[in-house]
Amino acid sequence: MDEQMHRRAVQELIQKKFYGHDVLISKYTPAFPSGIEREYDRLSRQYMRLLKETIEEEIPALKEQIMKERGTYRTDSINDVLSLMLEVFNKIQERFVEKEEGFDLRRKLESFANLTRKLTIKEWKKAVRKTLGIDILDDYYMGEFYRAIMDRWVDENVSLIKSIPGDTLEDIRGIIKSGFLDGKSTTRIMKDIQHRYNVGKSRASLIARDQVGKLNAAVTEAQQRDAGIEEYYWCDCGDGRVRKSHKRLNGRKFRWDTPPVVDEKTGRRCHPGQDYQCRCRAKPVFKFGTFNAPVAGKEGDTVA
Ligand SMILES: [Zn+2]
């Protein structure tokens, strides 16, 4: 079936839902994948715990080196002790790399990407079914359609999360060295290490809470535009966490080819879900003349 015939067949199926109008606002607002977001957050904490365990395993050895030096009062041995301490530090790095290999972060992130895609498809199909009374074919969205978006997301997230232990350990190396040379107490050095670890942990958690929404937004945009949706209504999630600038956009109609300004100062523009930790969604506006998607026809006929 050629493109035009296909579009006409789809139009025949959805015609009566439009009651002669050209546009139809979705009767359903796709939900935000909060469950997957929580799972990713949990994963980020598990991942960082590997680092915490590794540091804690080596801390007694590290303390011992610091105490030994402090006990001798021999300044000429400072460099020896320092190099022993950094040896301990290198061991932390090596041990972490071993543990990290067994964790298989990439595979876990791939599974989150798949879950997010599946949920986004489910929500999109729901919006189409509730509004137009038709079912979009499942397998259309399973293949190559999302491959590029998903692969990019996984690559980006692997490098975002993986960079954290590296940065944290690099800073901890500095804390140990300067703490020791400045004569800080062992307790103080240990506290500084703990603090730096907590900073890394928060950073991992922030990434987790930002990235699922980003993928959901990217998949949603691809889906809607592919189906000939040109406009959407901005929907915030109506709770206290919605930022003012997004509340201002709530309930207003925008075009996929012209994202609205979300930051008046900088003029920055984006679609729902693309902003930092944004949980807003795009409620599609179906247009009779442009809507086109592979649908299952009446009584099992396929219009693809
Ligand atoms: Zn938002």
Description:
- The protein has helices at 3-14, 34-72, 78-103, 105-132, 147-181, 186-226, 244-247; strands spanning 23-25, 135-136, 231-235, 253-255, 261-263, 268-269, 281-287, 295-296, 302-303.
- With 304 residues, it is α+β, with helices and mostly antiparallel strands.
- It has a domain at 1-29 and 228-291.
- The strands form three sheets. The chain has a four-stranded antiparallel sheet with strand order 1-7-3-4, covered by helices on one side. A three-stranded antiparallel sheet has the order 2-8-9. A two-stranded antiparallel sheet has the order 5-6.
- Strand 8 and strand 9 form a beta hairpin.
- Helix 2 (34-72) packs antiparallel against helix 3 (78-103) and helix 5 runs antiparallel to helix 6 (186-226).
- The radius of gyration is 27 Å and the shape is elongated.
- The termini are close together.
- The model has no long low-confidence stretch (mean pLDDT 90).
- The structure holds zinc ion (ZN).
- Pfam families: Phage_Mu_F.
